[in-house]
Amino acid sequence: MTKGSPPTLHNTQFLSCSLLAEDTINTVMDRLILGCGYSLLVLDDCDLGDQNVLRLIRNLANDVTDRPDVKSSGVIIILTTSDGGKIPNKLVAERIRDRGQISGISAEDVNSALRREDPKHVSFREQVAAPKFLFRSVPFLPLSSESVAQCAQRAARDQGATLSSAQLGAVMEMQQFAVIKNVKIANTGCKQIASRIDIVLAGASGTRSPNPEL
Fold it and tell me: What is the pTM of this model?
């Protein structure tokens, strides 16, 4: 690995936080710590106050460096949560009302607001803080209608498909938007887009041209 290049991941684990239990945590811990090289753990849709989540992250931070049988070079953890999600929405709404656009809001603006207004984020940061653990919060701003359309086209390409204008329109109609000073902002992100594309593509494949002989 050259200096400055990202680590090569040898082991990836994806886990919904709703499935976290004692046996699951132990299995994930062993796979990450006893695997060689760098590992990636994705914890999806987590409650920042969930003690199972906190215990898993704290144990990983300690065991990667302290367990005598460890083989891992390190673990990268990506945790997604909707906790505090109304705070960036509020910032975006205020920016649109003031300037008529979203641009100009930085990640630090959102993080500062989360630290001020969301006790769960403050508590989570304090409980996982450790010298051997590097923590970085990456907030996602609400998406404009154009961003949602780009997300849909990208998700369709990932499935080996291309959305027609009509199909893209059908996907967009399933998405809920709030309108602030004529700017449309998605109430949710891209997470549900893939399932909506499946519905649209399934409907298209189930449509048959009329038989002219009948």
Answer: 0.72
